[in-house]
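Summarise what follows for lecture notes:
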Amino acid sequence: MRAVGLFCLLLITSPAFAPAAQAQSLEETFRKVNPSVLVVRAKGRDVSARGVTRFNETGSGFLISSSGRVMTAAHVVNGMDEITVEGVAGEVVRAKIISSDADADVSLLQLERVAAACGWRG
């Protein structure tokens, strides 16, 4: 009897009997997420006995809140002097690191201001 109950439970919860989810087209998905995708640029310097060497890093990030929080890769922004974020409309906004985990290669940034050009319309 227990085997019959288990079989019925598996049958009910099987994906074959679940209602089909509506798939979004690639264009629809791109239109929804594209404004949240950002370019992250960071400027840094290395000071050694030979002098100061300046360098730049570029990466991507995405807007995760209407308050201007951005997730990006830690290796792009850790230890940098200046961090800026550019939205799809080209507007550049300064950002600072709120939290970072080098082992997970993840950093949370806070934008100085939330620009409509950065894609948040919520």
The longest strand covers residues 51-63.
